[in-house]
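Record 1 of the preview.
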Amino acid sequence: MNLRTLIARGRGAMLEFMPEPNAEALAELLSAFANGVGGTILVGVDERGRVYPNAAELFDPVLAKALAMCEPPFRAADLPEWHWEETPRGQVVTIIVRPTPYQITVEGKRAFVRSGKINVPVSPDRLDITRREAGVSYEDEIVAGASLDDFDEAVIEEYQRNRVKRGPRGEAFTRLELLRDAGAITPSGAPTVAGMLLFGKNPHHYLPQVGVVLVRFRGTSLHETALSGERYARRVEIVGPAARLVEKTWEALFSEIHGESTTNGLAREEHYDYPPEAVREAVVNAICHRDYRITGQRVEVRLFDDHMDIISPGGLPGHITLENILDEHYSRNPRLVRGLYYWGYIEELGQGIDIMYEAMRRDHHPPPEFRDSGRSFTVTLYSTVDQIAQRYGDMLNPRQIRVLQFLSTNERITNSQFRELCPDVSPETLRLDLRHLVEEGILLKIGDKRGTYYVLK
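->
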């Protein structure tokens, strides 16, 4: 990816700008990217593309100081790479940081993880425990009995094409270098768990927990299904490397969520029981972030009449909780996440939950629900549609929608009840909201002064 394209992308989960070199800030970035899925740092240029000519002159000593601040030191195989690029206004340095199988701290005191556009400080003892066990993450463990012959050449070639398109400019790999860059093999050439997950012909032969099980149940719950005497209406088992799991799971789900098609003029409109973006993100997240150390359990997609559950083995990773899940980001399997990013199945790292929320809101479904049992993490998506929001969403504001939702189960609403629904909004704003609903012929105002209330017209 060339410099112009990187600048056009802007700051994000895998890209940061450093107009003027600063050792402490650079060490923080190295820690954040190395502890996550990797990233690119552009030194000597800002987000608007302005080049700082003197930055290149200071780069070497600043980088040396930043690397000296990183503890433990980067191993030779994981050391960040950098190259210089000439521009009409001076030189820009591109630093490529790859994820490490061990945590990188700044002077042994602070560790960082990348969350969206910011580096989040995390106490070193709160980083994912698997990264502290023997200094090796599960992704980097050797797969016993496997050889390079167990990798699918067609899958590797497909990955390489996408890697060239989405990677930093100038990166060129031999097959061996590509596998090492992806963490698919050890320095001695032995296949790793990450390699089997990304490129294995039959990864489930070595890792039986790899795969997705999709089950379509009758009814709205397992209890209701049990009472009906019919265990399930459809069951599909999906295996293969990660990219194929995403593709095949989506194919199996498409027929379940695709509703009737309609024709509007000359345009054909497709209708779905669930927003496709929300479903895809939930599936990709489950495959990416499950705990692959847990054997005997695969990712499950359970479809019911009114909702679906996407269940991934393992609780929330690292410092992520149900309270901060919308604001923070951390990858239990950074090599797998990085691989699917280059494949194109992850557009913007750390945005999956946001995409789910926005897609459900846009199509007037209830927001997604999350449950963390410690042993598994479940995302629930509901197919039910808020008819009021669907009908009035383009003409009324969210507060007015709440009034109509309240009146769907109550005969009347008063000014004081409206203030209880929207406690952070001024009484004058709420009064204007109600007046607008009356003027639009949606509500009828009854009574006067303190005795005023509103009903649906």
